[in-house]
User: What shape does this take?
Amino acid sequence: MAAIALVGVDHVSLGSDYDGAVETTYDTSELAALTDALQRQGLPDAAIAKVMGGNTIDFLARALPD
Assistant: This one.
């Protein structure tokens, strides 16, 4: 929520270096818990969709060549 307050929801997205190549004690199975936490904080569903991947898709669509 601090990042959203600082730069706006259009500029925040999940970032992950987790690609499965290295064993870690965490995985992506708890992403639903993150969504739930954002909802409990009162973030609208449209904003959650942006943070959970929409902003990344928008960025890649603009940045990658056609």
